Fold:
Amino acid sequence: MRYKPTIAGLTLLVTITYVCFHASGQAIPTQKDEQIQQTAEAATPPPAQTLLLKEGTEINLKFAQKLSAKSAFVGEPVELVLARDLKVGDVIVVKQGARALGTVVAGKESEKKRNEARQLAMRVDFLKVGDKKIRLRGEKAAEGKRNKNAMIEGTVLLGLSGLLMTSGKHYEIPEGSPLTAYVDEDVEVSALSP
Structure:
């Protein structure tokens, strides 16, 4: 007896072949997917430790620029830098040299005025840590110094009126001057790797 292929037999053969092919084809990608996922998990670094920087924490800064009553005007930004590493416990959260910004709050009323300001003061606004800004509070006022040479020359040339004209104080905060600021509110920061 000869076997004649029928439509039902061919359909059954195609169906079995299709099922076997897809069943074996899906097992291989699943194993590859698991291997890729395991490799990605191994390459992913562990999450950084998050610490709480508490309100009132002392921050030691220093001026990154000279500030003078001759040129400083109200609203002018002031550059500062972190004087030493900032730590929470024994863990460093901000490296020395990180940028901090402040604002002149007492000085010339506008940049265009020629007269020297009678006082000079600034406030600290924030410390920049990566993309995050840590709000700070703190202020610094300049101490006035008299220009003794100008006073002597004015007195010799013009007498008492020369002394009065040159006896004004000159206010300035030199670059590198220390300033202590404080964290304004609790903030979470990431630990830096040693």
Q: What stands out?
A: The longest helix spans residues 7-43. The mean pLDDT is 74. The CA atoms of residues 62 and 177 lie 5 Å apart. DSSP finds three helices and 14 strands in the chain.
